[in-house]
Design a protein that fits this description.
The protein has 7 helices and 11 strands. By secondary structure, the chain is an alpha/beta fold.
């Protein structure tokens, strides 16, 4: 249920110290998701999430850090009532513009993930956060706020880049020419870090950056427990892609199946 409030929308001033949003690359991100046709979102993340969620008809779902609303629209198409929230004002504007068939079923708000001010306590059946927690600085506050808006025993499904194998600047592919094996090198896994990401590599002008936060898996699990959740499921999802023919194809394809890209954690609010 949406809560009536006189609280003002976050402004540039109030977001100054927390703005890790993708609003500055909103147009690029929207085009990437909607037009490429072979994204990890479309081929791996969304189908697996839909499988785990099951029937969402008439379920009240909050999509935390919803971006431009692509997964929100999928959920609305499946019959759910959606509240989409994202810090990026530009992304929310795109989500609202695309919300043409579910005007009374999906509503979007620009706000930090740790401030779901528009939602009453215990009003939502399910919360999802898709490939966004690694871009959110206030992790514990976000977990606490998600718990607040969920019903008792409500479900929280979060998908993140796999923290073991996708740590910007500290993980990369390597190839052993002697053994003909492709491997993944992992450095500084246990060290939390804040990393500035260049979203416009190769461009000299009009540079766009976002921020990524690396955290080992235990940080997410401990944060969930502290917020009153119990972890009930953990899945790891690998790439759907295959290499073109060549001397390294077999090794590359095998490594894709053995080294997952994404992790999904499902947790239940205990009370």
């Amino acid at each position: 249920m949406i809560k009536k409030t006189n609280k003002p929308k976050p402004t540039a001033a109030t977001k100054k110290n927390t703005d890790t949003s993708w609003g500055g690359v909103a147009s690029w991100y929207d085009e990437h998701l909607e037009k490429s046709g072979d994204t990890y979102h479309e081929k791996v993340v969304y189908p697996n999430l839909a499988r785990l969620l099951g029937d969402v008809t008439r379920k009240k779902i909050v999509d935390v850090a919803c971006g431009q609303g692509q997964f929100s629209r999928i959920l609305a198409d499946a019959g759910a009532y959606i509240i989409g929230v994202d810090l990026g004002k530009e992304l929310i504007e795109i989500a609202e513009k695309k919300n043409t068939t579910h005007k009374f079923q999906a509503h979007y708000f620009s706000s930090p993930s740790h401030d779901l001010y528009m939602i009453q306590d215990g009003a939502q059946d399910i919360a999802v956060c898709v490939l966004a927690l690694q871009n959110i600085e206030k992790l514990q506050d976000t977990m606490k706020e998600v718990a607040r808006v969920l019903t008792p025993h409500g479900r929280f499904l979060m998908v993140i880049n796999h923290p073991s194998f996708r740590n910007p600047r500290h993980t990369h592919w390597g190839y052993d020419e002697h053994e003909k094996v492709q491997y993944r090198r992992v450095d500084e896994y246990m060290s939390e870090s804040k990393i500035k990401i260049d979203m416009t590599p190769g461009s000299v002008t009009n540079k766009k950056f976002t921020v990524s936060f690396h955290r080992p898996l235990q940080v997410y699990v401990k944060a969930l427990g502290k917020a009153g959740f119990a972890v009930t499921r953990l899945e790891e999802w690998e790439s759907h892609r295959a290499s073109e023919r060549g001397p390294r194809k077999e090794a590359e394809d095998k490594s894709r199946k053995e080294i997952p890209l994404f992790m999904c954690i499902e947790a239940i609010k205990l009370a």
